[in-house]
């Protein structure tokens, strides 16, 4: 067991193997219906990537940013050169996977137009709720790819910038990251309420 758990790749593969075992159990008891399994599968991928995205967003805002002033200056390069770039890689790709799987899920379930128009085309409150969640998620995705990541590249020295530009970029990235933290709370409320309250 330690051979699996001491290697991240083997751990993740083992997790997917266990998920496949659960699928086999489902298949043996329920049979397979693409109409039932397809939406579930994309919802699972959507939640899986969303957990990675929001988990890293909250890591940055609840752990890394508040802890940086407490880290001795000689240790800060380890964060900026090793940890932050790796975390930002998974952060932005999880954001992309979340938005793509969410759109596929909405299309698969036949409510993409209703959700994008916030339920205005059919007056269904569930579509308003899921639509609000989708729009908040889209704003957050945009912030990740087009504001936070370009500014983090400057702040971390991954692209050439002056010290003044680095400081400005770091502040901009932090403010938009905090904006996404703020938006993540009503976004999750809208998504969960659409599945449970309507």
Topology:
Elements: H1 2-5, H2 8-30, H3 34-67, H4 76-108, H5 112-116, H6 125-155, H7 163-196
Helix pairs in contact: 3-4, 3-7, 4-6, 6-7
Tally of helical runs: 7
Major β-sheet profile: none
Beta-strand residue percentage:
under 5%
Could you state the order of secondary-structure elements as H and E? HHHHHHH
Features:
198 residues, mainly alpha, 7 helices, 0% strand, flat, 83% helix
Q: Could you characterize the architecture of this molecule?
A:
The chain has helices at residues 2-5, 8-30, 34-67, 76-108, 112-116, 125-155, 163-196. It is mostly helical and 198 residues long. The protein contains seven helices and no strands. The chain has two domains: 1-32; 34-196.
Outline of the structure:
The chain has 198 residues and is mostly helical.
């Amino acid at each position: 067991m330690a051979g699996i758990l001491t290697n991240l790749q083997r751990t993740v593969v083992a997790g997917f193997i266990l998920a496949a075992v659960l699928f086999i159990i489902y298949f043996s008891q329920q049979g397979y219906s693409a109409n039932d399994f397809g939406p579930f599968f994309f919802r699972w991928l959507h939640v899986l990537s969303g957990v990675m995205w929001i988990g890293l967003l909250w890591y940055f805002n609840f752990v890394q940013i508040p802890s940086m002033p407490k880290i001795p200056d000689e240790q800060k390069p380890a964060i900026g050169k090793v940890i932050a770039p790796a975390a930002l890689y998974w952060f932005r790709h999880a954001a992309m996977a979340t938005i793509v799987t969410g759109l596929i899920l909405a299309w698969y379930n036949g409510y993409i137009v209703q959700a994008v128009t916030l339920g205005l085309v059919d007056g269904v409150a569930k579509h308003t709720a899921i639509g609000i969640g989708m729009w908040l998620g889209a704003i957050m995705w945009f912030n990740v790819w087009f504001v936070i990541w370009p500014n983090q590249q400057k702040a971390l020295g991954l692209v050439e910038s002056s010290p003044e530009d680095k400081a400005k970029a770091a502040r901009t990235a932090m403010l938009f990251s905090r904006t996404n933290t703020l938006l993540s709370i009503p976004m999750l409320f809208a998504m969960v309420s659409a599945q449970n309250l309507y």
